[in-house]
Specification:
Layout lengths: L2 H22 L26 E3 L9 E11 L4 E9 L5 E9 L4 E8 L5 E3 L6 E2 L7 H11 L9 H8 L13
Antiparallel strand pairs: 1-2, 2-3, 3-4, 4-5, 5-6, 5-7
Length: about 180
């Protein structure tokens, strides 16, 4: 190889290695160490007239909805919403949850009762979003609707627009 090209090639590899090392060390992915969660207020009871269906998977017989009246984006960057899961037999599970795009985490705040009351979750802690059968609705909401990588929607209106159209998975981070 030409000595000049060899130096350029080695220099390029060194720069690439330095950059990828910085990324893997968290240089470009660190989250705010001073982050604090906003005070969480329970939304109004779920209203069937405000339900927006969203796609989760071809392998589930259940239907999934977000109550658009409950969607909020806090100053803390958390997208909060009421999730409704309906089974083919008519059973319905209602929960109030949050997604933190910056860390890829989710949190269950409360479960909804048939009378519209909320029951606070016993173990309400931030947990990683895992794309498995149980958490697939949260993974779909995070990675296919609300989050653009680590970026949360700008505000409630933006979150509602994102909920109306699923992200093209062939086009990571955007293109809708």
């Amino acid at each position: 190889m030409n000595p000049t090209l060899s130096r350029i090639f080695r220099g390029g590899l060194l720069a690439l290695a330095s950059f990828s090392g910085a990324v893997s060390a968290g240089f470009l992915t660190d989250v705010d160490p001073n982050w604090e969660e906003d005070e969480v207020l329970m939304p109004p009871p779920m209203d069937a007239a405000r339900l927006r269906a969203f796609y989760v998977s071809a392998t589930t017989p259940n239907q999934f909805f977000v109550d658009e009246g409950s969607v909020s984006v806090g100053a803390d960057g958390v997208v909060r919403f009421t999730l409704v899961v309906r089974t083919p037999g008519g059973a319905e599970n209602v929960s109030f949850e949050g997604i933190r795009c910056a860390t890829g985490e989710r949190r269950l705040y409360a479960s909804g009762r048939a009378d519209g009351e909320w029951v606070a979750a016993r173990n309400s802690v931030w947990q990683p979003i895992v794309d498995n059968t149980y958490n697939r609705p949260r993974a779909a909401l995070a990675w296919e609707y609300f989050c653009d990588g680590p970026a949360a929607p700008r505000n409630r209106e933006h979150a509602l627009r994102l909920l109306q159209q699923r992200r093209d998975q062939a086009q990571p981070y955007g293109v809708r």
